[in-house]
Amino acid sequence: MKENIKILFEHYLAGKTDPEQEKILMEYLADPANADSEFHGVMEKAWTKQTRETDYSLAAVQGLAQVWDKVEERQPKSRLLFPLLKYAAAIVVIISGALGWYAYKKAQQPVQTAIAFLSKTTQKGEKVKLILPDSSIVYLGAGSKLTWPSHFVKGSLRNIQLDGEAFFEVKRDTTSPFIVHSGQMQTRVLGTSFNIYAYPKDGTFSVAVRTGKVKVSESSGGKVKDLSLLTPGMKLLYHIKARDYNIHTENITEVNAWIKNSFVFKDVSLPNMLRSLERYYNVRIELKSSKLTQCRFNATFSNKSISHVMEELRIMSGKHMEYKIDTTTKTITVWGEGCQ
C-alpha cells in the first residue's frame, strides 16, 4: 500500500493525477498514523528539480498569494467536498514542510561565492595598523601596499599580497596557513610575528622573524622552491637579480623597530638606505655622486629628525659625503668623493 502511495505522490508532484487519485492520496496523508518520513526520498527528488535559489521576490510572493486566493474562492458545495479541502490543507503542510527541510539541508552545504578584495596603500612618511578578517594584525610601512580578501574561508589558505614593508602578527590557525606573496617570494606561516621588506625597486627581499616559525619560498615558472625555515632571531636576505640569499641572526627587538620610529640599517648600501629614508621621512633625496654608491653603513636612528640622520651619515662617511636640505621643496641633495 505504502509503495503505491509513494508512486501516486510522485505523480501528484508531477501534475499527473486525476481527481479520484488526488482524493485517495489526500485521505492517506491526512491520517496522522501516516505522518512518518517515508516521503523524504520523493521530496528530495522534487527538491533537486527546483531552482538553485528560492525565489523571495515580490513577484513570487504575489503569485503565491493569488494561488491561495483561488483556493479560498472554492467554497464547498456539499459536505462531501469539505473533507477534501481539509485533506488539501494537510498535503500542502506536508509538501511545504518537506521542501522547507530540504531547503534548510541545502543551505547548510558550503557555497562557493565570489570574494571581494580590499587594499590599503600608504604614502611616504605614513604607516598604519590594519586588522585582517581573521584578527591578524598588520603594521603597514611607508610607501607600501597590502591586498587581502574581505574574508578568509576556514580550512583554506589565507593569501595576501604585499608590496613594501609590513610587520605581521598572525592569528594562529593550523587548518588555514597564512601566505604573504611579494613578487616571486612567498612567506608561509601558521601563527607567528615577522617582518617583510619587499619594495620592488630596491632589488632585495627580506624576512625577519620575531616569534614562531616562517617558511620562505621562491616561485618561478609555476614552480615553488623552498629556501629556508626561519625561527626567532633569524633573517633571510634575498637578492632578486642574482637569485641568491643569505641568512644571519638579528636582535628580535630590532625586527619591528621601525614601528616605534627606530630605523636599523645593517651593512646597507647608501642608495638603498636613502630610498628607505625617503619613505620614512617623506622627503626626496637626490644622490649626485656615483662614487657614493659603494658606501655601506651600519646605523640605528631612534626618533631622530632627518637633518640629524643626514649629519650622522656625513660623520660616518669620514665627512667625505656632503648634503644640502631644501626645506621648501623637502628635497635633500647628496654628493661627495666616496667613503673612508
Automatic annotation (TrEMBL):
Residues 121-215 form the FecR protein domain. This is DUF4974 domain-containing protein. The chain crosses the membrane at residues 84-104. Residues 263-330 form the Protein FecR C-terminal domain. One of its GO terms (molecular function) is sigma factor antagonist activity. Keywords: Membrane, Transmembrane, Transmembrane helix. It comes from Pedobacter psychrodurus. It comes from the Bacteria. The keyword Lipid metabolism does not apply. It holds the Pfam family FecR.
